[in-house]
C-alpha cells in the first residue's frame, strides 16, 4: 500500500484541526458504551402477537423433539 505525501498532509491538517477544536468529538466522555442499547424498536400489537406465537410454536416443537428423540416418551 502506498501512502502519498498529499494523504499525509491531509491527515496532519485534520489532526491539527481536531486537536485545536475545543468541542472535539473524539474527546467526548458521554459516548455510550456497548452495554447500553441505544435503539428501541416499537412493533405493533399484531406483530407482537405473531412474534409470541412463533416463539411458543418453536418452544413446543423443541420440547416435542426432545421427548421423542431423547427417549423420554
- Residue share in β-strands: under 5%
* Principal-axis shape: elongated
Whole-angstrom Rg:
27 Å
Query: What letter string, H or E per element, gives the SSE order?
Result: HH
Low-confidence stretches: none
- First-last Cα distance: 64 Å
Total number of beta strands: 0
* Average pLDDT taken over every residue: 76
Number of helices: 2
Summing up helix and strand content along with how strands pair, one would put the structural category as mainly alpha
Helix content: 55-70%
Largest sheet: none
Description:
With 73 residues, this protein is an all-alpha fold. Helix content is 56%, strand content 0%. The chain contains 2 helices and no strands. The chain has helices at 5-20, 45-69. The longest helix has 25 residues, at 45-69. The chain is elongated and about 70 Å long. It starts with a helix and ends with a helix.
Amino acid at each position: 500500500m502506498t501512502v502519498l505525501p498529499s494523504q499525509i498532509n491531509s491527515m496532519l491538517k485534520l489532526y491539527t484541526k481536531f486537536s485545536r477544536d475545543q468541542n472535539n468529538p473524539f474527546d467526548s466522555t458521554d459516548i455510550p458504551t456497548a452495554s447500553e442499547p441505544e435503539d428501541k424498536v416499537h412493533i405493533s400489537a399484531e406483530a407482537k402477537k405473531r412474534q409470541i406465537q412463533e416463539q411458543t410454536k418453536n418452544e413446543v416443537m423443541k420440547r416435542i423433539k426432545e421427548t421423542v428423540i431423547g427417549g423420554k416418551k
